[in-house]
Amino acid sequence: MQGSANLNLMVKAARAAGRSLVKDFREVENLQVSVKGAGDFVSRADIEAERIIREMLTEARPNYGWLGEESGGEVAGADPTRRWIVDPLDGTTNFLHGLPHWAVSIALEHKGEVVAGVVYDPAKDEMFVAEKGQGAWMNQSRLRVSGRGRLIESIFATGLPFGGRADLPDTLADLARLLPTCAGVRRWGSAALDLAYVAAGRYDGFWERRLHPWDMAAGIVIAREAGALVEALEPEADILESGEIVAANEAIFEKFARIVRGE
Fold first, then answer.
1. Got the DSSP string for 209-262?
2. pTM, to two decimals
């Protein structure tokens, strides 16, 4: 894929952060880890990856705004129409447990819409990229959502609440409605990769509550450009503001969305 200058910059930054993370992943038992909250850990590897990304993006595009997981909130840019949305390590708990399923996620938002996204899985060297109107790609292969049209043949991904989160009853109710109708549900611990896998046809759909913008932003444009329908759980809500999402191929989206919405 011949991407724009911005997309090429995002890919370069994701690879640089990925190289740094892989070095620490090989020595995961020796990482210095601090606790951010119940079930939500941050490592010095995470913070270093964000520093690398921020320096590269800011040097090249000093006027853009910034929203990153580790940097303590949003930083407005001189250009109010554009901002980077970054999760330097999506799947931190997997990373800290030595599980090779985590990713670097970088998105570019323009006038409130995500127009480019990169989700990089360094452990598998899979680079998922998309720009609005240009399709979605994994390395050099064009991505397309699955063609399955029956729920009973489909597998779905979600996140399971941990550490006593208040949304556990809702998720358990979702599973009770969905599991009898489908071929299975997976919980792999990275929303960015879940959405990328919907784009690649590996999952047929994905839903989750209580996500942050940096968890979803890049994955949203990648999934949409691969042919997925992506909405908030409340159909008219803004996905990034609501923190709730449902995505699937067009053939099953309506049935799947009704189930997870409890309709």
1. SS--HHHHHHHHHHHHHTTEEEE-SSTTS-HHHHT-EEEEEHHHHHHHHHHHTT
2. 0.94
